[in-house]
Write a structure and sequence with these properties.
Elements lengths: L4 H12 L5 E6 L6 E6 H5 L2 H8 L4 H4 L1 E4 L4 H13 L15 H16 L2 H16 L12 H10 L5 H10 L6 H5 L3 H13 L11 H4 L1 H5 L7
Parallel strand pairs: 1-3
Antiparallel strand pairs: 1-2
Helix pairs in contact: 1-5, 5-6, 6-7, 9-11
Amino acid sequence: MATDQSEVLVRKAAIRFNNASLVTIFAGQVPHQEKFMVHDWIIQRSEFFQRVLDGQRAEVDKRVIELPVDDPITVQNYFEFIYTDELSVLSEKCTGERCTHFRTIAELYMFADKLQDLRCKKAFIQKLCSHILERKRDGKSFIPECFLVGKIYKGTVEGDPIRVLMVDVWKTCRMTTERVHNLPKDFLKDLIASCQDSITTTYPYQDNFFHKGAKYYMDKVAGSD
């Protein structure tokens, strides 16, 4: 059942609530730019935010942080999750061939990575694993689409836990010529290398995703809470 619209509006109002202890954040570019008012404790959990405010930039005196290249919707979802520990955009069950939940969570993971928010990275990895394990009507698991794999590889660095997850999940599906052409070369290299490393194992992926679960990838997120 979808989240009541009034509840979503209340959450948005809470995020935009203004008082002297808040920092102003602008996301996106005009005319689609959005303004958010965020509490200090949000800033303290992100090394990225702290560097902006502690540095020598003009924004420091104004307590303003600009995120011109970031999607306002992703920023909105991130702050909603911080304040409520929930994501209203995931309230409807994903049943289609292409699950938009994957894209939402992956974009949040990459944004949290930019902010160096390790706790959120782990939380989003866990949510992504949960959605992958959900079954479609035909009994098969959801597999992240080629477009999303490409976006993840473009927005992360070599060895990132979410890249490892993509490789392990794609080991479980049948590869077609069309799919190969639509996947990034770096991903295919990682996939081949991973298969070669575990070629003597009957079900190599079970040691990672299906056997160890989300914790395997959460533990790969550097640092500690």
